[in-house]
Amino acid sequence: xxxxxxxxxxxxxxxxxxxxxxxxxxxxxxxxxxxxxxxxxxxxxxxxxxxxxxxxxxxxxxxxxxxxxxxxxxxxxxxxxxxxxxxxxxxxxxxxxxxxxxxxxxxxxxxxxxxxxxxxxxxxxxxxxxxxxxxxxxxxxxxxxxxxxxxxxxxxxxxxxxxxxxxxxxxxxxxxxxxxxxxxxxxxxxxxxxxxxxxxxxxxxxxxxxxxxxxxxxxxxxxxxxxxxxxxxxxxxxxxxxxxxxxxxxxxxxxxxxxxxxxxxxxxxxxxxxxxxx
Length: 278
Prior knowledge:
Elements: E1 4-10, H1 17-25, E2 32-39, H2 45-52, E3 57-61, H3 67-77, E4 82-87, E5 90-92, H4 96-104, E6 111-120, E7 126-128, E8 131-133, E9 140-142, E10 157-159, E11 166-170, H5 171-177, H6 193-203, E12 207-218, H7 227-245, H8 248-258, H9 262-272
Parallel strand pairs: 1-2, 1-4, 2-3, 6-12
Antiparallel strand pairs: 4-11, 5-12, 6-7, 6-11, 8-9, 10-12
Helix pairs in contact: 6-7
C-alpha cells in the first residue's frame, strides 16, 4: 500500500500534463501511485500520458463531469494513506514529497489537510497559501493571492482549509467527512467544493495547516472556463456551501448582511450574467 495517492484531473490538458507528471516522477520520494481522471479530452492528452508515463492509472470519462466528481472517482480507488490533489497545470518542486512527509511524521493526529505554498509560474508571486473563510460574512479567498513572496508567508500556521489545486488530505479524514454527494460535493461541479470540504472537516474536529517549506507552481484556469461561468459558479456554490454548513443563527446574520452586498450583487448578475437564467 503506497503512502501517497496523487490525483490529477485533465481536460484538454496536453499543454500542461507532461510538465506536471515529469515533476512528479523525478521526485526523490517514490512511494506513491498516480491516478489521473480525464474529463472527456478531445486533444492528445491521453495518448501523450500513455506514451510518456504508462504506469499512470487512468480513469476515462466520456464527457466533463466536473472537478468534484472526477476527484471522487479517483479517491474511491486510491490506496494511499494521504491524498494529494493536483491540477494538471501545477508543477512540484524537486523535493516536495520529502518535505511533506517530514512534516507528516510530526503532525498532530487532528490535522487532516496540508496546504503547500503555491506560487505562480514567475516563482515570485503567491497563488495560494490556503483558504480563508470570513467568520462574519462567510466570504472566502486564497490567502496571499497576488502578493509578492517576500518572506511574509514563510511560517507554518493553522488555516481554514487547503486549495485543492495542490492539497494534501488525510485519507481517513476524507472517509469520515464523506457525504451522499461524495468526498467533494458533486453538486458544486467545479469551484468552492474545497471550501465546503474544509468546513465539513472543521465541523468534525479536523484541522488544516499551511506548510511553506513545500512549494508548487501553478498557472491557473487550465480548464479554460470562461469568466462568466466561473463568476456564476462562485456565486451559486457559496450559497450551497452556506446552506449546508452554517448554523441557524449564522444564517439569520447572513440574511441581514445580504442587503448590503449579496442582494445588490444578485441583481447585478441577473442583468450581466446569462448563466443565472439557465
